């Protein structure tokens, strides 16, 4: 209820502040008998790690994970798996002057309103750094998906107004922005650096495709797979919208244009619904797009107020991603993996 | 976990199939001492009722609600409130021929895949008729919001490609499509009827604004108010996307254009974030838009398959809404009311 | 959280006040494809029904159940099953004079303290009448247990100080007190009637045995099967204690006397642990006993206070069970059935 | 659902195996603004620590706690509080020979049946060592109770058949067995050592009293405070029974003897109900007793089987508590503290 737990069957609870001692999570509900190693988790963390390229923040964090429990002789025990990532490169001093100032576009003001106090160092728990625990947990969820060959592909569909023109999954991890179009990637990278140079930031759109999803995953009514995937992705800081299949374009279509005709039990003629009907997967590829706002932290001067309501000027120094898209991609994949693994396990309960 | 319960503190569990004996819900977690009458619930149901105008389905349902429990001498007892709505105008025979056929755009196929059997009469529980229970429950949630003067306004922003050009809250309930722009409403109505005439349907966009929301509502991490509002609205059949504030347009903005400057503790210069920062309300109006697909049920002939995978032709007779927007509006309001009332109660737990 | 829901996977939410319009429940998480009929549910309700013999209350309730949803053509749909039982023989007028008086041993005072108001008619929701919904729901849980041949036997082990001397399962439903010892049953019956005659009531002990339970049911740590069976049975009004296996007698044993030696993978030499070790079933019979207090409602005069704290004298007229044991037995079975069916379904999630 | 989380509003999730890297917990739902220090938590852990006296195990664990998150500048942030306790004195080699043998009275067999594999070192997660995390978490719960002056007193009421004859709270922490009767304590201590000498163990009864509990705590129906306190205490390994107020003795009383007469709104003449009526506190002292079995680990030889079902002889070497009572006392207090703090916070939701 306090918002730090995700999942029905496979439950992850995360903890940690950006500049506290550590971040981590407890994953409960993992079936016994899954092979998992520290290395497999670390690989995922490395994809999300800060400082991985010139278009990401310069904060240096090794983000080394330790498995504290729940794994014995290389296999899951069926007991809670606790993962720990110590914070290292914390320059908390940078933040002392932000103690009483609300950064525009950030959660400083809203968290203060809710809790009456806050860890003002780097946004505390409202920092994107919190997602490190999600990515770690998702490495375990992925093992469950692997057993069904379910594959999640996320990529930069658009950055700074530059839209990808083709889809080549092989190039995604070969360019700094994680686009599926090498030519567009070059332009996106340049646009990010140009914005950074003038102390500004840019936004974009991430597309996520999930392949080999069996038909029949999801729940009726409130826990439709679209609803929960929506919540999962909207729970990532900076995400301002989500759409499935043709998404907002559906508003302009007619029913005869929107409906996906069945060709066989395995195939539909089109996939405008994005692989989901009535909140349950239909066996087609799930297709989603999320809107990512430009990074709130910018170094050019902004007007704001302090905790007394007095006008202040602020330049957010620190070390920030000039565009969130490249580093949100592994986080978005993580949330999708956690969601799908949860539904996959839960589907064992569907029939007597 | 089975997906029929919504909320953390204020929990609603709904039940019922489109052509079963009844629909209804149990609302648990309602504080004791709230005044509520059958009439107040009925008023909300009447706004959602089928057959209310020429642009909605001709199905005749009085949708009369009975309070079975939890209310005594006009006040809530703190015990579960059960609400019952009997089904009446069920023409189940219409559906017998659909027993083994999957309607395109519907959940027939996916539910069959999940459960191995289904109530094929009018979509069973996957029918939009299920939302009657949500609207009934929300009448109680609204009483909690009323005490804080929180106001929810939803309207047709776009139907069949016709976009509203102005916002006049007073006209919403005075036109058949529930637009906030009377001139646009006329054109939308005409477009719906035109589509219906040729056995087709149209989609649209609903905008939802929430006024007088106190700052500080929401939860960290997974249960951000944007995440849960997203899930709440995406749990309505036919909704294919959601965006907050400037939404997908944020992808094209720079940080300096997107950030909302604070002017005072009560006021920001702009509201591009849509009233939410870091998953918690900032005291500004919450602004959301949802994409509504054109109705899947259309009377013009479509190709599909039966449960053996054999090709079939289908004309979905029945009585259907040619556009879901007008009747989804009260449902969207209901989901927002349930979500906000839940957070409002939960906020009592924020501080010692 | 408001306390009206039970179960993790198989979730039952009950509603209703003793003298309100109706009682009932929604059971969510029932797998699709289970055969169930109104008759099967009614049979269980008839075992719990008031007025079934001279040792039970004279209140006349047919307790007729209606299935409102979730069942189609005789099979569960996988959607919520709502069950409705209308109240009929409500003599609410009897209770008007109790509006401002707190009956000793009842929940009048404590509910008033919690909620600030209450339905004073027959205890409202704190009445034992509430358990009718549990028994109805359990009829469905039993169908799940039946598929594994799991059998629940509950009986009066002791009433009014008279202790059963033998165990003959066949006689339980053949005597009015539901003892497994016919001779003891005669004495128990006489003791109940004697107490009733002088306006008093008696207590007892119920023993519950569960047969054919597979080894490996239960959860680590907080959700041990003993912990949840404990909660399940302590949630029945009037239950003041529970013990497993040798129970409180374990306090006087040595480890060498208490430990159950394994003879084979299927058999232990003794069953002092009562079929549970470390919170998980070991394949032996589960054995529990619960202490049932004498009925709080007695017709002999008692001293008490009213809502202003002023001294009052009270004679609880109404129609009451002079001993709760016979009618709690089916309720205890119901709670055990709900608990076990829940664990049985959940055990599908134990291993990859 | 996997059983490692406790609480509705104040939720604790524990993790860790007896001989793994660490044990710990995440506590979510703690309101912001509570002062808490590592030292306060450590004090509670020291009361539970092994090796504290000659009647407890010789295992040497400092059980030093580290706060990983959720606390900033000495105050709770409203975010999850993660607590870490590293394992140190692990003599895992002792357990290698137990890899394929099931210890009588232990969870080796049942966990193997459930999960198909297990951490056989010291019982893994089924070890009593797991409770260290509960005690740590409860230190925070206690801060919430302190604000209402709620006080929990637990003591050895009976050990090895020796029953306390008086109640003197001041002596509890001054004798090794934690009895409230110094003379009885001497005999209990002697009895424990005598049993230990012959390679055996003894059981006992713990009484728990909770003072200054406000009236009105608890929930209707399934989540009665007696039900949840029952579950909380039955979730401690080795607890075989629980009773409230007069408990099992209620079975032999008449209604006229059992009912507690009200004298004023603040006072009842007697407290046979143990401070709870209808699952909700009545403002009197809550009184409970739990039955603790003799320690399963004994060094005298026992017959058992191995994982193939072959007969084996076993002498459980290791270092074990000859009586669980003294060290379960702080654990029982912890579970009570967690339960009460949860209800206390939840009670903010009772009324509008």
Summarize this structure briefly.
The structure is a homotetramer of 352-residue chains. Chain A has 352 residues and is an alpha+beta fold.
Structure, described:
Four copies of one chain form a homotetramer. Chain A has helices spanning 38-48, 93-96, 108-115, 131-146, 182-197, 225-234, 255-258, 325-346; strands spanning 5-6, 11-16, 22-28, 65-67, 71-72, 75-76, 81-86, 151-159, 162-163, 204-211, 239-244, 262-264, 267-268, 276-277, 280-281, 286-292, 302-305, 311-314. With 352 residues, chain A is α+β, with helices and mostly antiparallel strands. Chain A has a single domain (5-349), classed as Chorismate synthase AroC (Chorismate synthase, AroC fold), CATH 3.60.150.10. In chain A, the strands form six sheets. A five-stranded antiparallel sheet of chain A has the order 1-2-3-7-4. In chain A, strand 14 (276-277) and strand 15 (280-281) form a beta hairpin. In chain A, helix 4 (131-146) crosses helix 8 (325-346) and helix 6 runs antiparallel to helix 8 (325-346). The longest helix of chain A has 22 residues, at 325-346. The mean pLDDT of chain A is 95. At the C-D interface, strand 1, helix 3, helix 6, strand 11 and helix 7 of C face strand 1, helix 3, helix 6, strand 11 and helix 7 of D. Strand 11 (239-244) of chain A pairs antiparallel with strand 11 of chain B.
């Amino acid at each position: 209820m306090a918002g730090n737990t995700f999942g029905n069957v496979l439950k992850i609870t995360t903890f940690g502040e950006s500049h506290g001692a550590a971040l981590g999570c407890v994953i409960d509900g993992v079936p016994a008998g899954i092979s998992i190693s520290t290395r497999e988790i670390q690989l995922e963390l490395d994809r999300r790690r800060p400082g991985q390229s010139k278009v990401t923040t310069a904060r240096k964090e090794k983000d080394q994970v330790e498995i504290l429990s729940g794994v014995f002789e290389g296999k899951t025990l069926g007991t809670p798996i606790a993962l720990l990532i110590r914070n290292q490169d914390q320059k908390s001093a940078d933040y002392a002057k932000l103690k009483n100032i609300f950064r525009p576009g950030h959660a400083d003001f809203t968290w203060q309103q809710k809790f009456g106090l806050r860890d003002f160092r780097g946004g505390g728990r409202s920092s994107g750094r919190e997602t490190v625990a999600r990515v770690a947990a998702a490495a375990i969820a992925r093992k469950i998906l692997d057993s069904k060959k379910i594959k999640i592909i996320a990529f930069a569909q658009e950055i700074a107004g530059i839209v990808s023109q083709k889809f080549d999954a092989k190039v995604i991890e070969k360019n700094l922005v994680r686009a599926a179009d090498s030519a567009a990637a070059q332009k996106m990278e340049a646009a990010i650096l140009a914005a950074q140079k003038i102390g500004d930031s840019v936004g974009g759109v991430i597309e996520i495709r999930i392949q080999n999803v069996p038909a029949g995953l999801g729940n009726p009514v409130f826990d439709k797979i679209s609803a929960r995937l929506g919540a999962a992705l909207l729970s990532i800081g900076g995400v301002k919208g989500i759409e499935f299949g043709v998404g907002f374009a559906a508003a302009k279509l007619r029913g005869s244009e929107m409906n996906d005709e069945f060709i066989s039990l395995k195939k539909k003629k089109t996939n405008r619904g994005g692989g989901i009907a009535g909140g349950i997967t239909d066996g087609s590829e799930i297709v989603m797009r999320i809107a990512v706002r430009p990074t709130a932290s910018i170094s050019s001067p902004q007007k704001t107020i302090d905790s007394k309501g007095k006008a202040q000027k602020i330049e957010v120094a620190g070390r920030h991603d000039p565009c969130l898209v490249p580093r949100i991609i592994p986080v978005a994949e993580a949330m999708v993996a956690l969601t799908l693994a949860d539904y996959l396990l839960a589907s064992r309960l569907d029939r007597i």
